[in-house]
UniProtKB/TrEMBL annotation:
GO terms for cellular component: endomembrane system; PAS complex. The lineage of its organism: Eukaryota, Viridiplantae, Streptophyta, Embryophyta, Tracheophyta. GO terms for biological process: phosphatidylinositol biosynthetic process. This is Protein VAC14-like protein. It comes from Zea mays (Maize). It is found in: Endomembrane system. The keyword Membrane applies. Residues 64-242 form the Vacuolar protein 14 C-terminal Fig4-binding domain.
Length: 326
């Protein structure tokens, strides 16, 4: 039985059953189809085909990605293993030619990674990226496609506790990168920082001298937010609770933003600097900047195409002027 035949059979059987509502029927069909796909995809070449098929389907149907994407990805992670699924998604999306879709898809995968209980073990592995070879390999594998989205990249760095690199990514952002879409994603991240997933990060704020780069990263995000936004107030409130200890050279000003710049960076700059040689972060930063340059050029091409199309449309509109008779 082929994959298409199996899926068609499952759907037809599901339709013959009576469910409380159409939405429940749809949900059951999706879950059954996924189980069929997962059984077929146990072999490696079928697995690659399955993930490619899902990405193609999401590309052609953004509504499906928005409404059912999280359910599909989470269920697939349960059936086939979260690390295996996410590595394959990243490998395929790394070479995605539709940059807009790649960014949207990566953002969706990143949100699932940060919120789903099914991916708890994957998050735990990422937290060991600086001290464990398996965590390092996973971090680099995801980074290859996560760089399609600045906010997804920063989120990944926060999970991996690669705070120094997160700060470098923030500093590398240009004016074109900080747009409405970016701010919406940033707003989501700030709210997620208050969830149990990032409890370890908030606890690290109790030792500001040890986690200098974490503080710089959070203040960097704060400076990118509009001051009147709810996300700005949430993050500012959190940073006000940081206990500035003897490691902080306090200035006469009570402004916490000036205090953070005076953090003493003696022998213990940050937890991740001790393991910096394990991952080539300068190379990753170059890759990130190169990908963002592609996205900027793509955006410029889109704007230019729209301008050209508008100009062409206007040129085809008859002009009714006035003529004078002598």
């Amino acid at each position: 039985m082929t994959m298409k035949t199996a899926v068609s059979t499952i759907v037809e059987q599901a339709r013959k059953n009576y469910y409380p509502s159409a939405s429940y029927l749809e949900l059951q069909v999706v879950l059954l189809v996924l189980e069929v796909h997962a059984r077929i995809a146990e072999e490696s070449h079928h697995f690659h085909h399955l993930v490619s098929y899902l990405i193609c389907t999401f590309h052609n149907n953004h509504f499906l990605l928005e409404k059912r994407g999280a359910l599909i990805v989470r269920r697939l992670c349960v059936l086939l293993g979260a690390e295996k699924v996410y590595r394959e998604f990243s490998t395929i999306l790394e070479s995605e030619v539709d940059l807009d879709f790649a960014s949207v898809m990566v953002q969706a995968l990143n949100l699932i990674l940060l919120t789903s209980t099914e991916l708890g073990e994957l998050r735990s592995l990422l937290k060991k990226s600086l001290v464990d070879s398996c965590g390092k390999d996973l971090f680099q594998s995801l980074y290859a496609s996560w760089r399609h989205s600045p906010m997804a990249t920063i989120s990944l760095c926060l999970l991996a506790q690669a705070y120094s690199h997160a700060s470098c990514v923030i500093q590398s952002l240009g004016e074109e990168d900080i747009n409405v879409k970016f701010l919406v994603q940033l707003d989501k991240l700030i709210r997620l920082l208050e969830t149990p997933v990032f409890a370890y990060l908030r606890l690290q704020l109790l030792e500001p001298g040890k986690h200098t780069w974490l503080l710089k990263t959070l203040y960097g995000l704060l400076m990118l937010l509009p001051q009147q936004s709810a996300a700005f107030k949430i993050l500012r409130t959190r940073l006000k609770t940081v206990p500035f200890s003897e490691n902080i050279k306090r200035t006469s000003s009570a402004n916490p933003y000036s205090q953070i710049l005076q953090v003493t960076e003696d022998g213990n700059r940050n937890q991740d600097t001790q393991n910096y040689s394990a991952i080539n972060f300068p190379s990753l930063l170059q890759q990130f900047e190169h990908m963002q340059l592609q996205h900027r050029n793509h955006l410029k091409d889109q704007l230019q195409s729209r301008k050209s199309a508008s100009a062409l449309t206007l040129s085809q509109v008859p002009f009714f002027g006035f003529c004078s008779h002598i």
